[in-house]
Amino acid sequence: MAIARVIVELKPGVLDPQGEAIKNSLHALGYEEVKKVRVGKFITLEVEGNDLKEIEERVKEMADKLLANVVIEKFTVQVEG
Amino acid sequence: MKFGVVVFPGSNCDADCFHVLKNVFGRETVYIWHKEDNFDVDCIVLPGGFSYGDYLRAGAIARFSPVMKKVVEFANAGGLVIGICNGFQILLEAGLLPGAMLRNKSINFRCHDVYLRVENNNTPFTSKAHEGQVLKIPIAHGEGNYYCEPDTLKKLIANGQVVFRYCNSRGEVTEDANPNGSLYNIAGIINEKGNVLGMMPHPERCSENILGGEDGRVIWESIIAYLERGANRG
């Protein structure tokens, strides 16, 4: 069994209204030093198998197909046994 | 002619679309459950709502429903497909239309009437409207901020694929009239072939005066006229 972690983020330059709202709220709490907030998704998958290389390839495929929308998002995949 | 309204778990405008087509226009209309992949209709409606709870992203999971395989085949064969709100999001996720939806710029869920300008009336969905006609149609969405790459936008404009743009009551396309931050004030686009339309506003909610307006009728009337002319079916 392996653990795959997929991080999905909006591509740089794509507007992130959720991040903006959080930034404004942090400023309202007095954390003026925060200059930018971007919100993404962190998805953990428990995957059957031992071949970490193969698992990584499969999970990248999953991210490309479903977990991220590559028109607006980019993703990174980390796998550990 | 026969209309099919697809029902995903979480669709909530399916009954409204069914009602308008069946009772207001008196056309044969059936529901298509998302697990069905064998049906025979002349126009497919992907209704609004929150398919699969909009978990992950709006439309992302619905796009892999069994029914969508058939919808893609139907669309590729030239069949008429109209996606409204969540249906539009599903069409984008399925790659039947280019681009993607971001959250509304204001982050608010916007639920009110907007004005749209008909940019192209040379489509099966708008032939009964005149170019530049202003329609008053309600929206109800949190993720209707249309986005695409600059090259894609250029192509959409050059090909006349931008069918509806948000405008004010006088038909002027302004930033103030844009309810969600959509690129180029886009409210609805069509595919290159012209048989697949996605739009965020809800024409099914304004097809009877008792609901406050009839501006949505022109879209259904256009589709019916197109099908009556015996145009190709998928």
Describe the structure.
The complex is a heterodimer of chains A (81) and B (234). Chain A has 81 residues and is of the alpha+beta class. Chain A has a single domain, classed as Mth169, Chain: A (2-Layer Sandwich). Helices cover 35% and strands 30% of the residues of chain A. Chain A has helices at residues 17-28, 52-67, and strands spanning 2-10, 41-47, 73-80. Chain A starts with a strand and ends with a strand. The mean pLDDT of chain A is 96. In chain B, the strands form 2 sheets. Chain B has a 9-stranded mixed β-sheet, sandwiched between helices. In chain B, β3, α2 and β4 form a beta-alpha-beta unit. Chain B is globular and about 45 Å long. The model of chain B has no long low-confidence stretch (mean pLDDT 96). Classes of the chains: A alpha+beta (81), B alpha/beta (234). Chains A and B meet through α1 of A and loops of B.
Question: What is the typical, i.e. mean, pLDDT of chain A?
Answer: 96
Order of secondary-structure elements of chain B: EHEEHEHEEEEHEEEH
* The level-1 CATH class of chain A: Alpha Beta
What is the chain-wise order of helices and strands of chain A?
EHEHE
* Order of neighbouring strands in the sheet with most strands of chain A: 2-1-3
Order of strands in the sheet with most strands of chain B: 2-1-3-4-11-10-9-6-7
Separation of the first and last Cα atoms of chain B: 12 Å
CATH architecture of chain A: 2-Layer Sandwich
Query: What's the name of the CATH homologous superfamily of chain B?
Result: Class I glutamine amidotransferase (GATase) domain
Return the domain count of chain A: 1
GO molecular function, one term (chain B): phosphoribosylformylglycinamidine synthase activity
Subcellular location (chain B): Cytoplasm
EC number (chain B): 6.3.5.3, 3.5.1.2
Organism (chain B): Carboxydothermus hydrogenoformans (strain ATCC BAA-161 / DSM 6008 / Z-2901)
